Amino acid sequence: MTSGILDSDFAYYKLYGSLDDTSARALKRVLAGQLRRYMRAERVGKTELAELMHTNRHQVGRLLDRDDHRIELHMAVRAARVLGYKLHLQLLDRDEVG
User: Fold this and answer.
1) What is the pTM for the complete model shown?
2) Inter-residue contact 64 to 51 (CB < 8 Å)
3) Cα–Cα distance for residue pair 67/63, rounded to 1 Å
4) pLDDT digit of tens for each residue in the chain (98 aa)?
5) Domains by residue range for the chain, with CATH
6) What would the DSSP string read from start to end of 29-60?
7) Inter-CA distances, 88 with 15, 30, 75, 80, Å
C-alpha cells in the first residue's frame, strides 16, 4: 500500500529500472512506521523494546530508522512479537501485482 510521494517514487523508479530497491525502501518505511505506532500504543520506548528483544538500543534504532532499508527479518519478527503483534509477509502472484 502506498500513497502520496511513494506513488510518485514508484512511478519514477519503475520507469528507470530501480523498482526492487524502491519497493524495499517503501516496505521498510511502512514497517518502521507501524512499529513506532505500536510502541506508542503499548507505551514502550526504544530502551525497553531492546531489553524485551534481548538486543541493544542501536539495533532497535536501525529497525525503526525509515531510511535504513537493510533489516534482519528475525529482528522485525521479534519486535512485533514482544509488542504483542505478528509480522505477516506475503508473496503475490504476478497477476496480482500492478
Assistant:
1) 0.75
2) no
3) 10
4) 444 555 565 665 565 557 777 778 888 999 999 999 999 999 999 999 999 999 999 999 999 999 888 888 999 999 999 999 999 988 888 777 66
5) 5-96 (1.10.260)
6) HHHHHHHHHHHHHHT--HHHHHHHHTS-HHHH
7) 29, 13, 13, 10
